[in-house]
Design brief:
It comes from Hypoxylon rubiginosum. This is Cytochrome P450 3A13. The chain is of the alpha+beta class. The chain has helices spanning 6-25, 37-40, 43-50, 54-65, 81-89, 118-128, 134-137, 140-158, 167-184, 195-205, 210-218, 220-233, 240-251, 260-264, 273-303, 308-320, 330-342, 376-379, 404-410, 424-439, 481-484, and strands at residues 68-72, 75-78, 164-166, 352-353, 359-361, 364-366, 371-374, 442-446, 457-459, 464-466, 472-477. Strands 1-2-7-4 form a 4-stranded mixed sheet, sandwiched between helices. The protein has a 3-stranded antiparallel sheet with strand order 3-11-8. A hairpin with a 2-residue loop joins strand 5 (359-361) and strand 6. The protein has 21 helices and 11 strands. The longest helix has 31 residues, at 273-303. It has a single domain (32-484), classed as Cytochrome p450 (Orthogonal Bundle). Bound molecules: protoporphyrin IX containing FE (HEM). Protoporphyrin IX containing FE is lined by residues 112-113, 125, 179, 283, 286-287, 290-291, 294, 344-346, 350, 413-415, 419-423, 426-427. The site of protoporphyrin IX containing FE has 24 residues, from helix 15 and helix 20.
Length: 485
């Protein structure tokens, strides 16, 4: 009836518009710093998300408006220590996750990562956390597996000595083989040597479903209607080869004692096979892109002419301490910390809901139901008293005693609190063991075909990767340096 009467329709639209504007200008978030447009609309933020550039946009807003910024009518970003502690640490595991994490359900199941509320999360974490404890990672069977895969990595690279090697591929293979070893050895992958397994890694890594999944998140109805047209431009996420791997591995018996699967198969925990497969697929994806990309950005950085002194110093530490354990080498530790500070594999906002009753965060009252977040990229850069010259790659900052506590508190690459990264110790072991093996043998330099644009940060869901999805480096053996450099 309304549709048939244009004046009535116009009046109704006018009233709705007035009410919308009234609601925005009286919103409790109106007094927060931030661009005026963000009080009325989230379109600018969404546009940047669709362009895989959200992280830098939010960081730019922090640089302009300070530690607290309204980024959309119902969304606020914090870059302060107070923000990190309150949002991710209060009550142990911080505020509940938002529906954004629905995008990470697997086979229709919620995994540890995609559970939204504290209770469900705590129940699942009680089962899984044990296998990610540092004491379990440092067990010889677990560590030997990582060492073996690192040797395979070196062997593969050695075949291309002097020429360019695409480390983006090899490092993702390495991360894939390490994580599946930890998840379900002896049924894990061998993508560093077997091209069939490498195809599985590529299916997970070369995924271009960002825009498709964003439409699904913001407007499921629209996604239902235009899904097939949309998939011509941005494919839905499909990983049938990885599905086959986890479904067949979780059906097998007798996985090694240190693996996640052995824990989940324990009858006490009553997990169905599909729940186990969902967890494995989730951890596999979490383990491949994060560790693979973090190593890739780091090795690219220290291969630049301005960073060769970092390689020299690292090599000196590695060659003079061949017997020391990988986790007892201070400069290696500083290089890894600085790599994760400058290039956190998950650089972007980790969204949470403000609990009932609202909360005061960093001096601002934020009403319940508001989406709040911090992003590692900004937490690692914004406070120049803690991180002077934040855009400079400088491992030495981690070796200074002054300011150590503040640096550690603001280090957010693995997030923090009860929902921080459960795979942290595994990831650090993988990174350090590989860097030790590579830089005890080779100097790395960029291949001349690479450009800075190839290595620009491109946001995905929720990790970031080099925009060119390649990273060609030349590996030069230490004993024949003069011949190649
Ligand atoms: C350099 C490597 C890594 C980085 C930078 C990283 C970073 C993170 C971050 C920031 C989170 C919190 C995400 C959020 O709240 O939305 C997280 C959670 C998680 N990560 Fe990692 N991660 C890495 C490696 C790994 C590995 C190797 C695994 C497993 C094999 C893993 C498994 C997980 C899981 C299961 C969660 C969810 C934890 C929970 O909700 O309790 N991560 N990671």
């Amino acid at each position: 009836m309304l549709l048939l009467n244009p004046p009535l329709l116009a009046a109704a639209c006018f009233i709705i518009a007035i009410l919308y504007v009234y609601r925005c200008v009286t919103s409790p978030l109106r007094s927060l710093p931030g661009p005026r447009t963000s009080l009325f609309s989230s379109w600018v933020l969404k546009y940047r998300e669709f362009r895989a550039d959200r992280t830098r946009y939010v960081h730019h807003l922090h640089q302009r408006y300070g530690l607290v910024v309204r980024i959309a009518p119902n969304e606020v970003s914090f870059a302060s220590l107070e923000g990190v502690k309150e949002i991710y640490g209060s009550g142990g595991s911080g505020y509940d996750k938002t529906e954004f994490y629905n995008l990470f359900t697997v086979y229709g199941r919620r995994t540890m990562f995609s559970t939204l509320n504290k209770e469900d999360h705590a129940r699942r974490k009680r089962v899984l956390a044990d296998r990610y404890a540092n004491s379990n990672i440092l067990k010889s069977n677990s560590l030997d597996g990582i060492r073996e895969r690192s040797r395979r990595f070196v062997e593969r690279c050695s075949r291309h000595v002097g020429g360019g090697v695409d480390l983006f591929i090899c490092l993702h293979d390495y991360a894939f083989d390490c994580v599946t070893h930890h998840l379900f050895h002896p049924y894990g992958s061998d993508s560093l040597r077997d091209p069939k397994d490498e195809e599985i890694m590529k299916q997970v890594t070369f995924d271009d479903s960002l825009q498709n999944r964003l439409v699904q998140y913001y407007n499921p109805t629209l996604h239902g209607i235009i899904g097939s047209v949309l998939s011509l431009f941005s494919k839905p996420r499909q990983t049938p080869l990885a599905d086959d791997l986890v479904i067949s591995a979780t059906a097998k018996t007798g996985p090694a004692q240190f693996t996640l699967l052995s824990r989940m198969q324990d009858k006490n925990y009553n997990m169905t096979q599909i729940d186990m497969a969902a967890e494995c697929l989730d951890h596999m994806a979490a383990g491949i892109d994060t560790t693979g990309d973090a190593l890739c950005f780091l090795m690219w950085q220290i291969s630049q002419p301005g960073s060769l002194h970092v390689q020299e110093r690292l090599r000196e530490e590695l060659l003079t301490n061949p017997e020391s354990s990988f986790d007892k080498l201070p400069y290696l530790d500083a290089v890894v910390s600085e790599g994760l500070r400058c290039f956190p594999a998950i650089p972007m906002s980790l969204p949470r809901y403000v609990p009932p009753g609202g909360r005061t965060i960093d001096g601002y009252f934020i009403p319940e139901g508001t989406i709040v977040s911090c992003q590692a990229y900004s937490a690692h850069r914004i406070d120049e008293a803690v991180f002077p010259q934040p855009d400079t790659f400088n491992p030495d900052r981690w070796l200074q005693e002054a300011g150590e506590l503040d640096r550690k508190r603001l280090f957010f690459a693995f997030a923090s609190g009860g929902r921080g990264c459960v795979g942290k110790h595994l990831a650090l072991a993988e990174m350090k063991i590989l860097l030790r093996d590579v830089y005890s043998r080779f100097v790395t330099v960029p291949d001349s075909s690479m450009t800075a644009e190839d290595m620009e940060m491109s946001d995905q869901l929720i990790s970031s990767q080099p925009r060119g999805t390649k990273c060609l480096l030349r590996l030069v053996p230490l004993d024949g340096r003069e011949r190649y450099l």
